[in-house]
Amino acid sequence: MMLSVARRFLLAMAACATLAAPLAAQGAAQGLSPQQRAEVVEVLRDALKRDPSILREALASMQEAETRDRGEAQRSAILARRDALLADPGDPIKGNPQGSLTIVEFFDARCGYCKALHPTLQALLRADPQIRVVMKDLPILGPASVVASRALLAAQRQGKYAAFQDALMQLRGEPTEAALQAEAQKLGIDWARAKRDMEDPAIMARLQHNLGLARALSIEGTPALVIGSTLVPGAVDLPTLQNLVAQARQEARQGG
């Protein structure tokens, strides 16, 4: 009986690895006598000795709660920034510009996981012609990433963003200036014009805006996708993407 009582007490108090001191302090705040607090601590110690899984269960419960709270906070942040995510007229678009569902992709042109995700996204676009993808360049992997993002946004001004982004996602080496120029020229991009546009402060301002938006959404790395009100970190497979798209459409039908 003592063990089951201790288990319920421990879970209810959301215990952690240093159970004894916090619970004793809490007991003091609730008016327990020193003897009663000592008995509580002893009960917990005895329970943990008998069944260490109590602590694992408590920690798992806390972790689940934290994950749930983080997800709710991210959903709220997405809804609060819906226009910045979905309706910024300056953002590059892939897929169907008039698509019924929009996915937002934060990516770094040098990110290996972004490159791994790229063919999966391409397959999704081929399979579902009603998807619109908003591209958010997020160069977080150093100066070379910034240069690549500036080149991409310069190519956008020549109507070549999507093709250039595809090329950089398939590039196996570093996006040096020579590599960028070579890939750009294959696509008919005026490199001299692109070089001038890369220095435009408006392009750096857009990258800074993307960074601020990523921070507001608590994005910690690339790639990161926003699908409906869900933030999806990292590379995922095609069935997962399709399930998330279906969930987002169901959410939209329900007015979420």
How would you describe this protein?
This protein is an alpha+beta fold. It has two domains: 2-70, no CATH class; 82-253, Glutaredoxin, CATH 3.40.30. Helix content is 63%, strand content 10%. The protein contains twelve helices and five strands. The protein has helices at residues 2-12, 20-29, 34-50, 53-80, 82-86, 112-127, 143-156, 161-170, 177-186, 191-198, 201-216, 238-253; strands at residues 93-95, 101-107, 131-137, 224-227, 230-233. Strands 1-3-2-4-5 form a five-stranded mixed β-sheet, sandwiched between helices. Strand 4 and strand 5 form a beta hairpin. Helix 2 (20-29) packs antiparallel against helix 3 (34-50) and helix 7 (143-156) packs antiparallel against helix 8 (161-170). The radius of gyration is 25 Å and the shape is elongated. The two termini are 46 Å apart. Mean pLDDT is 86; it is low at 1-21.
